[in-house]
Amino acid sequence: MCKTEYAVCGNPHLLEGSLSAFLPSLNLAPRLSIPNPWIRSYSFDGKEEWEVNPLYCNTVREIYPYSNSNRLLNIVDMAIFDFLIAQLLLLAGIKLLMSLFSRVKRTTLLRLQLLAEPEYRLSDMMRESLLQDPLAPVLTEPHLLALDRRLQLILDTVGKCIDTFGEATVVANDTAQPQSPAVHRAKLDT
Fold this sequence. Notes:
By secondary structure, the protein is mainly α. The protein is 46% helix and 2% strand.
């Protein structure tokens, strides 16, 4: 299902994208394959549950392995990164982005907010970082400015979710410091 308005579509039968995976062999590290709950429907007539169910994220939170780990928050981080770099294979547009923002890490949100500030603007940070690259210019000015626009879309989306559901529901506090072993021993002694 490729339309010219989809940036991931190639010459009509190719789909452009990238994938990086650094996993040991299954012999060394057996693992299960867990499908992404926000899989895309590649048909014009069908929609996935996340596209029609506004409570889908709540459902996903109750299912293993998303119910007892940071896996869901890590998927959101990956989706944010993919959206920023316009790698739309994983993140198929703003509708999916809105679906994912049922939770976001506080540290991720704080970094994104910092990169939206004039003195730390994402496009400026990238421009400066890429100046030393032997292939410079790696990104053109329109690409750099697009980073800022996409970052603002993310922040606006998170803001709408916070307005709708409340910060305590949307922002996961991953900034809490773990207690020291001495604190754990003191609790055991009492």
